[in-house]
Amino acid sequence: MKTKKSPASLLLIPAGIFLVLIILISIGPFLWVLLSSVKTNREILTFSFRFTNGVHWQNYVNAFKIAPIVRYFQNSVFITIMGVLLNLTVMSMAAYVLSRFSFRLRNFIRAFFAMGLLIPGAALLLPLYTSIKAVGLYNNVWGLIVVYTAFGIPVSVFIMSSYFLTIPKEMEESAYIDGAGFLKTFAIIILPLARPAFATAGIMQFLLCWNEFQFALTLTTGHDARTLPVALYYFKSAFASDYGAMFAAIVLVSLPSIIVYSLLQKQVVSGLAAGSVKG
């Protein structure tokens, strides 16, 4: 006797197929780059799925020889750490005030921050180049730190202000009754509760600082302030034929982003889910 399947169980098949397709689309390009990073140029250009000459680890050695990856890696680490710290420190306080206090122009300020999401970065390239050069921050890591901190403001404000709205006001009121002031309440009560929001905003800001290419190329020259994404430019302009080394460099550039997101993904999902309830 045949058992009749419920409509819910019938939907599992297309849902599973859709999920597999999404996984393939997501990890397929990275797997292709990862495998190509240990192939020879001939294997890459012939789209071969086999390693006829074995695993070619020499591509990673060549990548370090062709471009100053170590120097650019140090610049990227410093710029990213400072960009994330500055952005989270300033915007957490701004987001807390916007979400907890009512005052004139509050909605205007929120809309003003939102406008930052609508302006393409390319439109600001020339004004930023002129401004950064005028204040003496051209070819300086602090010039990139200031630019990246500013570009991350809209996303950080909305993630954090949405999360602050989910925290019950009674907790702050209890702290005020016990004699805590504004800063003490924010530092001791709010900040520990807002860790998921900090992780989410921090990841977004990290990806912005680590992967940005356009401003890193335009606002710097030489090796003193350039970051890892600019290192890939060396393989395209002068050594375009060494695709294996280029793919090895792409893996080296991408790996820190994947590791950081993997370590904090639980906090990121928690922060996004909580922030989606109120806004």
TrEMBL record:
It comes from the Bacteria. Signal peptide: none annotated. The keyword Manganese does not apply. Residues 73-264 form the ABC transmembrane type-1 domain. CDD domains: TM_PBP2. It is found in: Cell membrane. Its main location: membrane. It is a multi-pass membrane protein. SUPFAM superfamilies: MetI-like. One of its GO terms (biological process) is transmembrane transport. Keywords: Cell membrane, Membrane, Transmembrane, Transmembrane helix, Transport. InterPro entries: MetI-like, MetI-like_sf. PROSITE patterns: ABC_TM1 (PS50928). The keyword Ribonucleoprotein does not apply. One of its GO terms (cellular component) is plasma membrane. The chain crosses the membrane at residues 12-35, 77-99, 111-129, 141-165, 186-208, 243-264. Belongs to the binding-protein-dependent transport system permease family. This is Sugar ABC transporter permease. It comes from Leadbettera azotonutricia (strain ATCC BAA-888 / DSM 13862 / ZAS-9). The lineage of its organism: Bacteria, Pseudomonadati, Spirochaetota, Spirochaetia, Spirochaetales.
